[in-house]
Amino acid sequence: MAQALLRLCCYIIRDDFGPIIEEVAKVLLQKGRLPLTRECLFVLIQHNLVYWSETREGSRNSIHYSIDQNEVLARVNFGIYIKYANEWVRHRGADEITYYMLLNGKGTFNGFIEDRNISKRTNKYKELKMTFKKIVESRYLTPVRITDSKSAQDKASEAEQRELAKVTNFIPTKKQMAEVKAKLAAVTDDDSVATGSKRKINFDSIERPTKQQKGDDPIDENQYYRVNYEKFNAKSRNRVSESIY
Fold first, then answer.
1. Domains and CATH numbers, the chain
2. Nearest alpha-carbon partner for 9 in 34, 37, 35, 28
């Protein structure tokens, strides 16, 4: 990683979380995937900055951690997300919800309501629930899945191992390896946000929720969500383009 980019990422982490967590982030940025066990890693995981995975190494299991520099750099745009949330979502209270999610890394609607100390019997609660529903439907918030804790590299490796296990119990041949890689490359995530960028390969094997019937409440108040940076960034780019022309 370039030194200028390293310093910028470290500055962002230090400004948001303090010097101790900055040191852990700096090591991960410099060294890559490492087996670390410090408490502050939980803070970085909570805020979607660090991925972790458990791997078998000989006779024991090891947990490795890695940091995503793009997640770190996205934090410089948080002010823009909050400032324009109401305008882009077209619902009052979207900025409050966005702020809460960014502050906590991820959260639930119930957690947001409890944090704001809002009674479920009030009109304010009904208004915010409608806003939350709109944010989710517009994909400014995205559900958190178990596999989100793993990096794309780890997901790809696990998916490759699963596919190879289906075709052979021995050391795979070059042809088998090539066929598996081609198969995985052809699998795209239909739920990716349309931002003009190439769709990501879906390495998750989790079943997606069934489509709900019309009239059903689509919001699970205890489901964890996080801010969809790609969606906000796309709107931000469009805003800049419109201002130029």
1. 3-67 (1.10.10.10), 74-144+214-244 (1.10.10), 149-205 (no CATH)
2. 28
